[in-house]
Structure formats: structure tokens, C-alpha cells
Design brief:
alpha/beta, binds iron/sulfur cluster, 469 residues, 5-stranded mixed beta barrel, 12 helices
Length: 469
């Protein structure tokens, strides 16, 4: 039995691991003697964007991409180091690459702990940390020098995307100024560094020109965008654009693609973006990792915006934009979580009536300050609370989804396989939310945005027919 939202679809907090192996783009037509790289991308969408940058650079230099480790000249493993379970998976992926190929370079979050990697796998050729693009590319050069081929070294202007062609992640900043006690990301990735708005917008423009229909805006804390650069202006097209959450959202919304905002905290300035959602400029969707509903637990977690009047804010957002979908993630069993605090969490869920929710049992990440809080919640209590949480949320999610039955919804088509069509409404992010199963009288294409009449809802997904193309 599945409880609540499918945990396999649930993203964790703003830096939770997705740990998904993404298929590499097809490299047919590459020169036979081009050096080849097999690439494993583990971790969250932010790590995926790092992988895309590294691959784009390598591909631009003439490296071919291999879908298999065996036979490739080198394997690069982009690791996730967030949770201990993600680290174990990263070490296993490195082990597989060594077994199947032998020549392995490690990069990504776990690269911040080179000793742990070398202790488990002494034969790795090089270890580089997160965002060390230059270093990882240099390590590849050293292991397998590039071959120059002026006819084959061209890459598409938008770079190489690991996501399907019709959606792409857009990373607007690196690092984080918050210090949540369960998280070591700021230690691994440093403080907030925002990209200039013009830089982000130019990348978004290139993506849209290359056929991307949906831009997924990501960072560790999207609503904090630009704080580090004092919201500096940069020139895009004929105007100056401030590096500010609202300004960037508005300009992205002018590009003609769906714009989905992930990892937003309920700060007061987020209010400004809700009218853009109501006007259809950006998707009426907010991914807000609340993590808990008890003020005392949030305080111990040192969560950003914990002191804000969240519930009143959410109610106001829904008044302005009734179609708003709110997705969130929570942790149960945080150190010291009492029965009363857990009940507060359930009451928060009931009151907030969130559309999409993922839940995680607390896992002590090595080096996280929360481990020193003591009062660990026993595993059986954590299991029980998780079950109760998921049961409560399942009912809420099902009720929220049912509201869509009988409505016409825009749906972006993600897959067409043996006649089965799968897509997502404006309220569903790829990989983490539900899907819409569609039937259609005429063929539809992946990436097409159709109008569907929703005729049925189950606990997670919708079903409907295509009524407009
Ligand atoms: S410190 Fe908090 S806000 Fe920052 S990355 Fe970690 S969990 Fe996210």
C-alpha cells in the first residue's frame, strides 16, 4: 500500500537528494576516435545542473558521451553528500564504475570529503568538490587528453541538457546563507552567490529558443536571490534588470515558457510574485519546504522564515490566486520532537491543506549541528509518526486533487509510450509530483501543451482526455 504521496517522488528539503541516474544524450554521429566519457549524475537538481555544465564543457571540447562505463575512456561520478544514505549510494556508484571501467574521477558534494572517498576507493584518479568545474575538467584532460575536431566539436548553443528536451532546470544561485541545524550544505557549498539576472535570463532565452517549454527555477533558497549582490542591476535586452526574486520571476515569465519556482520560503516579499501567478505569467505553483509545523521544532531547526505568520500568508495567497498549488516537504522525528510537537505538525497539515507533500524520517547527517541536540526520537516512534503523517496527508492530497475533476487543465506531455500518454498540469513538477494519464483522438507529441478534460482523480494522479491542442 502506498501512503500519502509516493515517497519515491518526494523531494526532501531544499537540498534533498533525488539520486537518479539521468540518461545521457545520444552521441550518434560522433567521431569514432573521440575520447569518451561515461557520466553518472547523482543528487538533487542543483547537482544535475552542475553535471550539465561539466558535460557541456567536455562535449564542446570534443569528448563523446558513452552510455556504458565499460569501453569508455573515463568515468566521472558526480556525487551527492547530503545524507549518509546518499553518501553510501555515491560510494556504491564509484565502486561500480571502478569495477566496470577502472578509470574514475569523482566530483560533487561528496568530493568535499576526499579522505572518505579515497579510504573506500583508493584507485580513483581524482577527487574534486562541488562546483569545481575547472578542476574536474582539468582532471579529465589529464586522464584523457581532448582531441580537437573542428567539425564535430560544436555543441548546441544551449549546452547539453540531461533533462528531456521540453523542460530544464535553471539554477539562479549557489550556496546558502541559512544555517538549518540538520543541513551541511552551507558547509559544502558555501554562502549564497547569486548569478547576475542578465546571465540567468540569457540562459533561459537560449533554452526556450532550443525548444524548452518549462523552466524549473532552482537554488538552495530561491526567495533569497540577489541578497548577496544587493539586488544589483545587469543589462538584458534593452533594460536593466535587478537581481531580485520578483524582477527575475517577471522577466522569466515574459519568455513564453512555463516558469516553476522551487525552494521558496514564505518571506513577506514572496507576496509580490503571487499576482504574477494569478495573471498567468509564472505557474501558480510554489515549492516551499516547510519541514515542520511546530514553532518550537522550527526554532530548533533554525529554519528561515520560521517566525513568519505562515498560515495567514498562505490564506492570502490563495485568495489572490485560487489555483495556487503548494508543494512542501516535512521531517518527522527531528531530535527532541515531543508528542505535542508532532500533534502540532498534524494540526498544521490539516489547516494548511497543502496539495503535494513529501515526508522524511529524520536522518542524522554527519557534521550537522542537530546531532548535538540529543533526545533522538526512537525509530519505532519515528515510524509510527511517519505513518500517521502520511495517512493524514493522503486524505488532504486526494481531496485537493479531486477539485480538478470536471475541469479543463493545460497539460504538458512528458511521455508517449505504446499509446499511453503521460503529462503534468501546471500544478505538477516533474519527478516529484503526480502525473496526468491521458487519452487522445489524435497523436500528441512529447513537449506539446494540450488542454485536457479531467475525468478522474486517485490519491496521486489525474486521468483525462485531450480536448484541445
Ligand atoms: S541551510 Fe537550510 S535553507 Fe540552506 S540549503 Fe540547508 S536546508 Fe536549505
Amino acid at each position: 500500500m502506498r501512503l500519502g504521496l509516493d515517497p519515491s517522488r518526494a523531494s526532501g528539503h531544499c537540498c534533498a537528494a533525488v539520486n537518479k541516474h539521468f540518461p545521457l544524450p545520444d552521441d550518434k554521429g560522433r567521431s569514432q576516435d573521440a575520447p569518451s566519457v561515461s557520466f553518472v549524475s547523482l543528487g538533487c537538481p542543483k547537482a544535475l545542473v552542475d553535471s550539465e555544465r561539466i558535460i557541456t564543457r567536455l562535449r564542446a571540447e570534443g569528448y563523446a558521451l558513452s552510455r556504458e562505463h565499460a569501453g569508455a575512456d573515463i568515468v566521472v561520478v558526480n556525487t551527492c553528500g547530503f545524507l549518509d544514505s546518499a553518501k553510501a549510494e555515491s560510494l556504491a556508484a564509484i565502486g561500480d564504475a571502478i569495477k566496470e571501467n577502472g578509470r574514475v574521477i569523482v566530483t560533487g558534494c561528496m568530493g568535499a570529503e576526499p579522505d572518505a572517498i579515497r579510504a573506500a576507493h583508493p584507485s580513483v584518479l581524482a577527487v574534486t568538490g562541488p562546483q569545481q568545474y575547472e578542476q574536474v575538467v582539468s582532471a579529465v584532460h589529464e586522464a584523457v587528453p581532448p582531441k580537437h575536431d573542428p567539425f564535430l566539436d560544436l555543441v548546441p548553443e544551449q549546452g547539453i541538457k540531461l533533462t528531456p528536451r521540453h523542460y530544464a532546470y535553471l539554477k539562479i544561485s549557489e550556496g546558502c546563507n541559512n544555517r538549518c541545524t540538520f543541513c551541511i550544505i552551507p558547509r559544502l557549498r558555501g554562502d549564497l552567490v547569486s548569478r547576475p539576472a542578465a546571465d540567468v535570463l540569457r540562459e533561459a532565452e537560449r533554452l526556450v529558443a532550443a525548444g524548452v517549454k518549462e523552466l524549473l527555477v532552482i537554488s538552495q533558497d530561491t526567495s533569497a536571490y540577489g541578497i548577496d549582490v544587493k539586488f544589483a542591476d545587469s543589462r538584458w535586452r534593452d533594460r536593466e534588470v535587478r537581481a531580485k526574486f520578483f524582477d527575475l520571476s517577471k522577466e522569466l515569465g515574459s519568455l513564453g515558457a512555463w516558469v516553476r519556482l522551487h525552494y521558496v520560503y514564505p518571506y513577506p516579499h514572496v507576496d509580490e510574485v503571487i499576482p504574477l501567478m494569478a495573471e498567468g505569467k509564472v505557474l501558480p505553483y510554489l515549492d516551499i519546504p516547510f519541514q515542520h509545523g511546530s514553532p518550537t521544532v522550527l526554532k530548533r531547526m533554525k529554519r528561515p522564515a520560521a517566525q513568519e505568520k505562515t498560515m495567514a500568508r498562505v490564506a492570502r495567497w490563495r485568495e489572490i490566486c485560487p489555483d495556487l498549488t503548494i508543494r512542501s516537504t516535512f521531517i518527522v522525528g527531528f531530535p527532541g520532537e515531543t508528542d505535542a510537537e508532532f500533534e502540532e505538525l498534524l494540526a498544521f497539515l490539516e489547516e494548511a491543506q497543502l496539495d503535494r507533500v513529501g515526508c522524511f524520517k529524520y536522518e542524522p547527517v554527519r557534521g550537522a549541528p542537530a546531532n548535538d541536540l540529543g533526545n533522538a526520537v526512537p525509530q519505532h516512534v519515528m515510524d509510527e509518526r511517519y505513518k500517521r503523517f502520511m495517512e493524514a496527508q493522503q486524505k488532504i492530497s486526494a481531496k485537493r486533487l479531486k477539485r480538478k475533476v470536471g475541469r479543463r487543465e493545460k497539460v504538458i506531455v512528458d511521455a508517449v509510450e505504446s499509446g499511453a500518454i503521460r503529462g503534468r498540469t501546471r500544478g505538477d513538477a516533474p519527478e516529484i509530483d503526480g502525473v496526468v494519464h491521458l487519452s487522445a483522438r489524435r497523436p500528441v507529441k512529447v513537449g506539446e501543451i494540450v488542454t485536457a478534460l479531467i475525468d478522474r482523480a486517485d490519491a496521486y494522479d489525474l486521468h483525462g482526455q485531450v480536448v484541445g491542442f
